[in-house]
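Why does this matter for the project? Reviewers at the last site visit asked to see concrete outputs rather than summary tables. In response, this paragraph embeds two records directly. Each consists of the residue sequence and, immediately after it, the corresponding structure tokens. Nothing has been edited or filtered.
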Amino acid sequence: MPAWFDRLRSGGLSTRDAAFDRDESVRAAAARMFGLSASLQRSLALDASPLVRTVLAGRPDLDSRAADMLCADNDVRVLRVMAGRSDLSDGQKAQLAEIRDARVLESLGLHDAAAFLDSLPFAPAPRAPKRGLFG
């Protein structure tokens, strides 16, 4: 085991320090720690690492504001984990239903839309391009 893991497990490294560590593995470990505060969850939802955000998305006690942030994520791996949650709000489900990824849509129960995406000869971008003021 790495030294940081032993320090984290024994309490020698605080959850807060782990959440802001330079090492991605330490932040990912913090994202799955029991009792992670809502504010730290929201901070980790903005982490640069898709791994950290994906681990956070799998938490059973995910903060609703952190869940909102993760439903707006740009990484399809994070979105796939979020779509598999059973505790999503209607708004979160609607946001995820706009994702052009068959696995996301299948997890949401949108089987026809998922089958359509699977039938395409190319993989569309997961999110529709943002439009400017005039189009």
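We now turn to the second protein, recorded in exactly the same manner.
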Amino acid sequence: MRNIIIASLLAFGITGCATKKIPVMLEASNVVPITAAQAAHDKCEFVKSFNVKTEHPNNLQPELKNQTYLAGANRYLITNVIEKRKQRPVNVDATLFKCPIITAYDAKPAGTIQLLPGANSVKPITFAEIENQNCKVLTTHMIEKTSPHSLEVELANETYMQGGNRFHITKIVDASNGRPTSVMADIYRCQHRTVAFEQ
């Protein structure tokens, strides 16, 4: 019996937490929290109130984003924390709102977007490179309509500001004359590989 308990503890230690991570739906990536004051200021439409309960604190925000999107809303407000685990909420009441989308960008003429210092090392990445390198996805970001000439500069700037160094375009939302002007992209942080020389 003692051997079984020891083996179970070792197996748990090796595999770690068994709670499955909930992925954020691509369409729900732009869902964000909002305050009651901001919802009133933006004249947001009330959609519904509901309860969200998860097994792990890390899954609460993805579940909130997904459920908000599925309800036809784009903002959520946590109104009551019912239960916490490790000082982080796992069971909450939330109110969902549909707020007007204020676009972050207008169509900009080429050359108005400047590359941020430090963002010059940010590059696009392919799926093959992601599999062959030690890369971690940080977030998904949408570039609103912009000049085709500015798109990659804006992606590089956003990737750098999010702490990443690589991006991968997953969806073209809008295009002009066959060139993308609005896209969804995954932002990655990849470890740099160094070559060890033997002497």
